[in-house]
Design a protein that fits this description.
binds pyridoxal-5'-phosphate; 13 strands; alpha/beta; 7-stranded mixed sheet; globular; Aspartate Aminotransferase, domain 2
C-alpha cells in the first residue's frame, strides 16, 4: 500500500491537514460599527471609530456573543456571568440569573415557586400587568388584592384573598417606592406562601436596609431602557434558595446548559421539566453590567433630589401625599399626591406643567391603562390564546373550587389611581433646581388648596 493510501489513524498523511481558504470573522467590524451607530455617535465619531479598528484587530474568529461555549481569549468570564456576580454581591443574595426581560424573570420565578394549573397567586391591584400575565403563563390564576396610600399591596388585604389554591404572593415595589415587606412576609409565612418580589420599578430601593428583591423568596427585575437602569431589554432573577434557583434556570435555560452535567437524569424530583430560552445576550449583558455598577449612584442622586423637595412641601387639607413605606429606601424618581377629587387633580397637573414641572394624571377619565387591575384586559377577560384553553377553564383549577371575580375588585386602587398626580423628578437637578420645583409645587397647591399644618406629612 502506498504511503499516500495509508490511513491517518495508521500513521498515513492527513487528507485535510488544514483549510487553505482565508476565514473572515463571523462577527466583525461591520457589526461593531452597527452597534456604534445604535449608540448614536455622530457621523464624525463613527468615521474615527472605523478608522481606528479593522477585522484584523479582532482576536480569533471574532467575538462570540453567546454566553456559553466561547471563553474569552483572556479568560474573562462572559459579561452575563460578571453581571450576575455583581448582582449577587450588591443585593446580598446567593444566586442571580440574567434573563431577557422582566417578564421572563417573573415567568421563571413563578414556575420555580410552584405556580401551575390549579394554583393561584395574589397580585397587587396596582402594578404592571406583566406580573399577573406571568402567573397565567405559568398556568396559575392571578387574584388581585387591594393597595393602600403607598400605592403598594396593602398587607391587611392579603389574607382575605388566600384560598387553598394560593401558593404565592407577588408584591410589586412600584414607582420607586417599596412594599411594606414585614407584614407581607408574616402573612406569607403563616400560610406557607412563596413571596415573589417584582422589583422592575424599583431596582436599588431598600426596605429596612435591605435591597428589594433580596427580602422574599425570589426577586425579579426588569433591566430595560424604560427603567432607571438598563440599555434595551433585559431582566434578572435573584434568590438565595438553591432549589428555587435550579428551577428558575430550568425554565429560563430549558436546553440544560446550566446543569453541571447537561444531559444527565434528574438529580431530584422537580429539577427537570420543559423550559424555554430566556438567556440574556452578551451584548445586552455588557451594557447592563455597566448600568448595574451605576445603580447606587443613580438611586442616591434621585434620593437627594426627592428628599430636598419633599422637605420643603407644605401640607394641605385637600391633598394626601403618597405614603412612603421606607423613607431611607425610597428612590424618589417620581413623587405622588392624591388630591381630593379628579377635577382638582387635573387642575393641579395642568398648573404644575404651566410652571415647567412635569406632572401627569392617569386612571379614571383617561384611556385604559394596564397598571390598574380593572383595565388589565388580557387578564380580566379570562381568555386563553385558544378558545377553551385559558387557565380559568382548566379542570384542575375548577375541580379545586376555583373561581375568581375581577369586577369591581380593588376599589382603593381604582380610586387612588384616578386621583393621583405624579410629578417626575430628574436625578441631575441642582439644589437650586430642587428649591425652585418645591416652590412651584407649593405655589400651585396654595392656589387651589387650604393650608393645613396638621395635614398628612410628605414623608
Ligand atoms: C412592575 C413591572 N413588572 C414587570 C415588568 C416587565 O418588564 P419587561 O418589560 O422587562 O418585561 C414591568 C415593565 O414595565 C413592570 O413595570
Amino acid at each position: 500500500m502506498s504511503k499516500q493510501a495509508q490511513l491517518a489513524v495508521d500513521g498515513g498523511p492527513k487528507a485535510f491537514p488544514k483549510a487553505s481558504g482565508k476565514p473572515q470573522p463571523k462577527i466583525g467590524i461591520e457589526e461593531f460599527m452597527s452597534v456604534a451607530e445604535r449608540f448614536g455617535f455622530t457621523p464624525a465619531a463613527l468615521k474615527r471609530l472605523r478608522a481606528a479598528v479593522s477585522d484584523t484587530d479582532l482576536r480569533g474568529n471574532g467575538p462570540n456573543l453567546a454566553r456559553y461555549a466561547c471563553p474569552f481569549p483572556d479568560d474573562q468570564p462572559p459579561k452575563g456571568v460578571q453581571f450576575e456576580q455583581l448582582a449577587t454581591e450588591m443585593f446580598g443574595v446567593k444566586h442571580a440569573l440574567a434573563v431577557s426581560s422582566g417578564t421572563a424573570a417573573l415567568h421563571a420565578a413563578f414556575v420555580a415557586a410552584g405556580v401551575g394549573p390549579g394554583t393561584e397567586v395574589i397580585c397587587p391591584g396596582l402594578g404592571f400587568m406583566a406580573t399577573s400575565m406571568a402567573v397565567m403563563m405559568a398556568g396559575g390564576v392571578p387574584v388581585f388584592a387591594d393597595i393602600d396610600e403607598s400605592l403598594q399591596l396593602d398587607p391587611s388585604k392579603i389574607e382575605g384573598q388566600i384560598t387553598p389554591r394560593t401558593v404565592a404572593v407577588a408584591p410589586t415595589h412600584h414607582w420607586s417606592n417599596v412594599a411594606d415587606m414585614a407584614p407581607i412576609l408574616r402573612v406569607a409565612r403563616r400560610h406557607k406562601l412563596k413571596v415573589v418580589e417584582d422589583c422592575a420599578q424599583a431596582p436599588g430601593a431598600k426596605y429596612r436596609g435591605r435591597y428589594v428583591g433580596s427580602i422574599g423568596d425570589i426577586g425579579c427585575f426588569s433591566i430595560s431602557a424604560y427603567k432607571i437602569i438598563g440599555g434595551g431589554e433585559g431582566g434578572m432573577v435573584v434568590t438565595s434558595n438553591d432549589r428555587l434557583f435550579d428551577r428558575v434556570r430550568q425554565l429560563a435555560e430549558g436546553g440544560g446548559l446550566w446543569r453541571p452535567d447537561r444531559f444527565a437524569a434528574p438529580r431530584y424530583a422537580g429539577e427537570l421539566f420543559p423550559g424555554t430560552n430566556y438567556r440574556l445576550s452578551e451584548l445586552e449583558s455588557a451594557v447592563d453590567l455597566v448600568q448595574l455598577r451605576k445603580l447606587d449612584q443613580v438611586c442616591d442622586r434621585f434620593r437627594a433630589v426627592s428628599r430636598r423637595i419633599l422637605s420643603q412641601l407644605a401640607t394641605w387639607r385637600e391633598i394626601r401625599p403618597q405614603t412612603i413605606n421606607d423613607p431611607d429606601g425610597f428612590i424618589g424618581y417620581q413623587l405622588r399626591l392624591f388630591p381630593a377629587t379628579t377635577a382638582l387633580s387635573a387642575k393641579i397637573a395642568t398648573a404644575l406643567r404651566a410652571e415647567g414641572i412635569s406632572a401627569g394624571t392617569r386612571g379614571k377619565g383617561h384611556a385604559p391603562d394596564w397598571h390598574v387591575s380593572a383595565c388589565m384586559y388580557p387578564v380580566i377577560l379570562k381568555a386563553g390564546h385558544i378558545k377553551g384553553g385559558s387557565v380559568f377553564e382548566d379542570p384542575r383549577w375548577l375541580s379545586r373550587g376555583g373561581r375568581v371575580n375581577y369586577r369591581g375588585v380593588c376599589p382603593v386602587a381604582q380610586d387612588l389611581y384616578g386621583r393621583e398626580v405624579a410629578i417626575h423628578i430628574d436625578q441631575w437637578w441642582s439644589e437650586r433646581d430642587c428649591d425652585r420645583v418645591a416652590r412651584g409645587i407649593n405655589k400651585v397647591l396654595s392656589a387651589y388648596c387650604t393650608a393645613d399644618p396638621d395635614g398628612k406629612p410628605w414623608s
